[in-house]
Amino acid sequence: MEPQSDLQSTRPDSRADDYAELRRELVDAVRVLCPHWLASRAEDLVQVALVKIFELRRRSEQERELSAFYLKRVAYSALVDEIRRLERRRESPLENEDGEPLPLASPIPGPERQQASRELGEGIRDCLSGLIRPRKLAVTLYLQGVSAAEAARLLDWELKHTRNLVYRGLGDLRRCLEEKGLQP
Amino acid sequence: MSEEEAGDRWRHAFAALGERATPGPECPEPDRLWAAAAGESPPAERHEIILHTASCSSCAAAFRLARGLAAGEAVPLPSASRLRWVRWSAPLAALAAALILAVLAPAGWWKPNLPYRGGDTLEIRSQLPDGTVLPRARADLQWTGGPAGSLYEVRVLTRDGREIAVEAGLGAPRYRIPPAALSGLRSGSVLYWQVRAVLPDGRTLVSKTFSARLE
Questions:
Q1: ipTM greater than 0.85, yes or no?
Q2: Between 20 and 30 A from A134 (CA), which of A21, A111, B125, B170?
Q3: B50 vs A76: CB contact, 8 Å cut-off?
């Protein structure tokens, strides 16, 4: 008994809608969540990721539908590969494919604030490396903007235990930053 | 400065390290970052990835990106006018369901604990324990079942998106990947699998993509 498809006539439109939606979501995510210097390249980065999806779709037998979640995952992998490629290139020549200098960090905060933020960030990273493993895990997720409930799920810990580790870990972090002469 | 303000300042400073980040050779593959951020990989693997992001600003940024993209992926039941996968005609589905149930219902396959997450939201979840390694001869996939009479289609893909197995019309929430389909894959290869359920009323439900490692 073969399944019947009645999507034949509507599939192209819904697929185009899916791609447009995915493209929008990816561009927004890059602009909001990636380093500032990538924001102006969001469209190009996302295009690279979408090309990967088109290739995957072309290889897919019998035009089978892939779930939006799977497509997003594929797009993400392509996106990160491309971001890493740019990050590596940026380290040495600091120019784009047209020979123009790549933009550095966003000028919005001002050079002094950028410097202070960078020192604090490097201090945080140093201090994190000295935390005991459970607190380091909990505080790292806190710094990544992950809620305690979500951190508990990701770490496979009880919520109360996770909150306790975040609390104690942040105390350690504060003391460490003070010892470095950084205003927490 | 309040604790909340200090926390915001720390998060900002930590994220800003990504402005000058450079990935290293030890950075995990993007797929592993995604699996960790989405909570799909085993806890020990997630811990390793999170610890790596503590010292690698490039991966920390990639982790945030994955979380942003993967968040809120509840799979709502699609409306009748917007089914994404193949839809069975209702009479055909009912007939198939009746036949399958008549033969198989006594075997007690059905799981009564349906994973409802909201008023109209149903989710198919993997029943494989975290870190499952699939033996080549018995590469069994299992997932939570839908309402009695649901039929399933399962698809198995490799990391590069190659489809190695597909089976439709399954009456039980499990599937054994044919050993022949795995013969060309290296040991340790990651397999991605996805299930589509056709519910008795004709609606379809697509799972997230799960992963498992091949023996």
A1: no
A2: B125
A3: no
Q: What is the pTM of this model?
A: 0.57
Q: Tell whether B118 and B159 lie within a shared domain.
A: yes
Residue B79 lies in a domain: no
Of the candidates B19, B38, B70, which is a domain's last residue?
A: B70
Q: What pLDDT sits at residue A104?
A: 39
Q: Which residues in chain B are contacts of A111 at CB distance < 8 A?
A: none
A70, B192: Cβ pair inside 8 Å?
A: yes
Place of tokens 């149903």: B122
Among B196, B207, B39, B191, which residue's Cα sits nearest to residue B115? Answer: B207
Nearest to A144 among B23, B53, B73 (CB): B53
Can you tell me the distance from the alpha carbon of B207 to that of B215, in angstroms, rounded to the nearest whole number? Answer: 24
Q: How many domains does chain B have?
A: 2
State pLDDT tens for residues B9-20: 899 899 888 888
Please report the DSSP string for A44-61 in residue order. Answer: HHHHHHHHHHHHHHHHSG
Indicate yes or no: CB of B65 within 8 angstroms of CB of A76.
Answer: yes
The per-residue pLDDT for range A134-149, each reduced to its tens digit, is 999 999 999 999 999 9
Enumerate residues 6+ apart whose C-beta is below 8 A from A175: none
Q: Give the residue numbers spanning the domain of B129.
A: 90-214
Q: Which two tokens stand for residue B210?
A: 């799960």
d(CA B213, CA B40) in angstroms, rounded, equals 13
Residue-wise pLDDT tens digits, A146-166: 999 999 999 999 999 999 999
Question: A70: nearest CA in chain B?
Answer: B209
Q: List domains and CATH numbers for chain A.
A: 12-91 (no CATH), 111-179 (1.10.10.10)
